[in-house]
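Example for tutorial group B:
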């Protein structure tokens, strides 16, 4: 499907600089642009590429002023990156979607299946499970007994939604993700560790996206809850009874221990760890590789292990590099002080 610069500008509310009839049918990075491609420029580091790109149309921020001629048609917009996301969403929405239930799928007679769904080969839909309308479930996925997957979802291959768990509308579950595996609950006994049954569920509210191989444990009792608009990257671990509030994002290989509550609009960097039974406020930022072990107030930026405020961490990082030199100076001063003490004691000072 082709789109003209005029159509694109009307859709995103942009201003055309160049040929309004220029057409595109695909996307490309600005440094890899080809005729018929749409690119964007939002990071000043890539400005040099706009003068040589072969892309037909380039989205730019409204304050962009070229220093020399540009062959591509430009569309100025308040936020080029945001506009690109909007266009890519439109592009995805008009692509043909799969429909129908594969004869190689296993769908329980008691399951409720909405309209215009796609259920791929070797999918299992359990007893009394529910799948909403317009949802796509790719091959080898398992939706357990009594589980619910809402409408307009995309569930990729090899996903497992355990029994009784709930996935809201417009959610995306990437390959290998697991919703509702047992929480890590064991009680030490005379002969080892006795398993504590995990009788709760895991709940994903609307517009949640879960990355590949991410695991969300079911609650010991009650529910592990991922609230509306949360985005979790690949290989994230969410333990039992955790609550992650609306629109929080967590990067790859980060993890949250049991019964911790994370506020809304938080950002957690890659490989960060958050201890159990603590509360993280709203709009908190946790830097990559950090370890949070205590409650954090709203709006704080944390870094380090154990994590402390980012501004303090930045100042401390400067000192870290100088510690060996500072130690040598301190040791020399200590020896000098001891020598002076001895001289004073013997009256030779």
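The residue assignment follows.
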């Amino acid at each position: 499907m082709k789109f003209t610069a005029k159509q694109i500008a009307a859709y995103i509310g942009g201003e055309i600089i160049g040929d309004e009839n220029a057409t595109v049918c695909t996307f490309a990075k600005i440094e890899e642009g080809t005729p018929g491609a749409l690119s964007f420029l939002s990071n000043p580091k890539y400005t040099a590429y706009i003068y040589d790109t072969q892309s037909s149309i380039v989205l730019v921020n409204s304050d962009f002023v070229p220093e020399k001629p540009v062959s591509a048609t430009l569309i100025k917009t308040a936020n080029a990156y945001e506009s690109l996301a909007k266009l890519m969403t439109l592009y995805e929405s008009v692509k043909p979607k799969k429909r129908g239930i594969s004869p190689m799928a296993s769908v329980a007679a008691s399951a409720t299946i909405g309209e215009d769904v796609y259920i791929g080969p070797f999918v299992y839909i359990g007893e009394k499970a529910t799948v909403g309308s317009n949802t796509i479930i790719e091959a080898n996925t398992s939706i357990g007994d009594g589980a619910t997957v809402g409408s307009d979802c995309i569930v990729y291959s090899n996903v497992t939604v355990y029994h009784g768990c709930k996935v809201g509308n417009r959610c995306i579950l990437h390959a290998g993700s697991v919703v509702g595996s047992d929480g890590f609950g064991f009680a030490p006994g005379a002969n080892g560790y006795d398993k504590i049954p995990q009788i709760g569920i895991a709940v994903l509210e609307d517009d949640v996206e879960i990355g590949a191989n991410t695991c969300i444990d079911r609650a010991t009792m009650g529910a592990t809850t991922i609230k509306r608009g949360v985005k979790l990257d690949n290989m994230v671990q969410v333990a039992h009874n955790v609550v992650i509030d609306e629109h929080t994002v967590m990067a790859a290989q980060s993890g949250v221990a049991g019964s911790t509550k994370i506020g809304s609009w938080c950002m957690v960097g890659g490989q960060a760890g958050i201890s159990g039974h603590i509360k993280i406020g709203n709009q908190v930022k946790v830097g990559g590789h950090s370890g949070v072990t205590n409650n954090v107030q709203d709006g704080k930026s944390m870094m380090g292990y154990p994590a402390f405020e980012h501004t303090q961490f930045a100042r401390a990082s400067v000192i870290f590099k100088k510690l060996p030199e500072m130690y040598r100076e301190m040791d020399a001063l200590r020896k000098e002080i001891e020598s002076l003490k001895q001289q004073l004691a013997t009256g030779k000072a």
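DSSP finds three helices and 40 strands in the chain. Compare this with the pattern of hydrophobic and polar residues in the output above.
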